[in-house]
Design brief:
- It contains 13 helices and 18 strands.
- By secondary structure, the protein is an alpha/beta fold.
- Helices cover about 30% and strands about 20% of the residues.
- Helix 8 crosses helix 10 and helix 11 crosses helix 12.
- Strand 2 and strand 3 (about 60-65) form a beta hairpin.
- The protein is elongated.
- The strands form 5 sheets. Strands 1-10-12-11-13-16-14-15 form an 8-stranded mixed sheet, sandwiched between helices. A 4-stranded antiparallel sheet has the order 5-4-9-6.
- The chain folds into 3 domains: about 15-65 and about 165-355, Zn peptidases (Aminopeptidase, 3-Layer(aba) Sandwich); about 65-160, Glucose Oxidase, domain 1 (3-Layer(bba) Sandwich); about 360-380 and about 385-440, Winged helix-like DNA-binding domain superfamily/Winged helix DNA-binding domain (Arc Repressor Mutant, subunit A).
Length: about 450
Amino acid sequence: MPLTSPFGALPAEADVQALMNRLYPICRSITGDGVRETLAILAGYANLQVHEVASGTIAYDWTVPDEWNIRDAFIADMNGKRLVDFRASNLHIVSYSIPINQTLTFAELDQHLHSLPSQPDAIPYRTAYYSSTWGFAITQRQRDAFDRNATYRVVIDSTKAPGSLSYGERLLSDGDGPEYLISTYSCHPSLGNDNLSGLILWTFLLARMAHRPLRNRYRFIVVPETIGSVIYMARNEAAMTGVAGGFVVTCVAGPGEHGYKSSFAGHSLVDRAARKALTDAGINWEEFPFDAGGSDERNYSAPFFRIPTGTISKSKYYTYDEYHTSLDNLTFISARELISTLALYESTIHILECERPLNSRMPYCEPMLGKRGLYPEIGGSQRSAAEASPAEQLDAIRWVMHMADGQETPLSIAMRSGLPHTTINKAVDTLIDAGLIVPGTPDPEPGRASRSGRPS
């Protein structure tokens, strides 16, 4: 079933594919020139502000490490033939490997090789961000082909030196409603679904929202996973305590089903909005519970902050065999699937944009709709498949009038009635125009538990 967006025509597949092709080959890590190159490209689409945080900077319990960059790496036989080549796949190198230029026996080399016997054609993704070590990730077939009696030249042309960590940010802050966080991560190298897809969806979403009038405020950030979110929270602590909720955009273009990983809170406004958007889309989708070992939502919802943060996905991390291997490539993901998930994010945000309590101006009994032209004189009119029937439109009007008590909102009415949010919201607009209801001030989280105080 094709998805549509309340924000209008969705991006062309060719435009999304072009950005996929451009970003995929770049070697990214938690620091370094690959991240800067990526952020510079994204800034051309969405006008980011890029920040640099110096090595050695302390953020809560973490310290920004030295910056890592790599130019080349290979394992060659003694005739100079490259058997493992970083230029063929940047996944071949364990991220943050220290430099090396040695001749080693296979037994010495084998201690630094990583492969997957159960997936003999896959290169695993491996990192050593906070260790002083090195390694190569290879396919099991490559490993099996090594001559156990030979010696090999091993070269990693890398640097680890004081530098900085880079992240991007843009605030859409013209609205006077609650503030929401839209976060993604920039540290993965050539992995398609995790998280090239998230970077691209995040960029298109920001670019499209930047040109729309917004009731709410949105804080878009792109950070290296884990340490980047810790640094961001430490540098923006006061502002982040006022964020009402958010999303981590990751794994949004795979061939599997859409899914929703709920926030720590479980039933926050962002959770309810995402579930309603997925349900209204008429697609199969799977719910995933919050877990403490996920992505950056674990930092955003830490005890001091407790920002409800969910994820709408398409082949969620951990659920597909290609995850964190070279098989998660450009053939595993597709621009079409990414655009379908973008439509779901935009529908969710539209629900958040429409959220405010509704007050009836005729709370005693139901108003007479006919004299306001809101009750059909004759039934049986034709409609397109995308439009609500006259009966459904009338049902929505009645639900809104019945529930507009100053506490209920378009989302709560849509969930109680079972009608699509778009149908309820259209009825809300109609009733506002007719002078029958008045919108109130948005409340981002009615009844939300207060955050913990800062420990002494």
